[in-house]
Amino acid sequence: MRALRAWSVVLTLALCFGLIAPGAVAGESATPPAGLLWNRTGLPAVFPLQVKTLAGQDYYLTLLDAETGAEAMAAYIRGGAFFKVLVPPGVYRLRFAAGNVWQGEEDLFGPGDKTERFELRNPLRFETRGLGVKAGHIVNLRNRQPGLFAEATLKEHLICQSFRPEFPRRVPSAQRWKWYVQGTGQHQTRRRDLPGVSGDFPGKTRTFEFTPDAYTVPRHDVRSRVCG
What distance in Å separates the CA atoms of residue 220 and residue 2, rounded to the nearest whole number? Predict the structure, then answer.
């Protein structure tokens, strides 16, 4: 009994001075940073997804392929904080887990009532529309009622891209050779594929120098803005 009280005192002091993390006692895992955790689709994440939540709980979000049910990506949301993540193209079901003490991806926020699970009733589509519109979504969970399916407020989140021309740049093109006749100050320029060298300068030495031609190509500046 005396040894148990001594151990309790040591543990309390260690917690107070930060020598032991609280999670080491309660089984708590290190809380991940807010944002994308992983993307298993192999596709680039370019479409916006914004989720609005209330403070008091954190959220673990999983996107599941609407056709196959396979887990596509996951993200961590701090309750009440601004959250926005980019999503790969596709149609996904959004599944959430909410709670207070994160215990890892396997246990989430703990057993039983410690982890609340729910998902949006309808899947969401992330796609490109036209030539330059990336269509995503804004999901508002602030007025959500408890239940297996969430009747969230939904709004499209559109990113429009515009292309603006810039000054053209020079790039190498056909190859040309310039040959000099030393001692005369004369030179001629010819295409590399032309046979022979015109002109005859007895007693003089010919020196060849490679000079690439160049041509111009247009350049574009791509700009993105929220348009819906």
Answer: 77
The CA angle 215-221-224, to the nearest 5 degrees, is: 160
- Give the strand pairing for 35-39 and 71-77: antiparallel
> Quick check: 224 and 202 in contact, CB under 8 A?
no
Task: Give the pLDDT score at 132.
Answer: 82
Contact 185, 153 (CB under 8 A): no
> CA Rg, the chain, in Å?
33
Asked if pLDDT for residue 220 goes beyond 90, the answer is no
Contacts of 82 (CB under 8 A, 6+ apart): none
Q: Residue 156, exposed/middle/buried by CB under 10 A (0-12, 13-18, 19+)?
A: exposed
On whether the CB atoms of residues 159 and 134 are closer than 8 A, the answer is yes
Q: Is residue 107 over pLDDT 90? A: yes
Q: Given the DSSP bridges, would you call strands 84-87 and 71-77 parallel, antiparallel or unpaired?
A: unpaired
What gap in Å lies between CA 139 and CA 77, rounded to an integer? 13
Q: Are the CB atoms for 59 and 85 separated by under 8 Å?
A: no
**Are 99 and 114 spatial neighbours (Cβ–Cβ below 8 Å)?**
yes
CA 154, CA 204: separation in Å to the nearest integer? 83
Domain regions of the chain by residue span: 29-164, 168-221
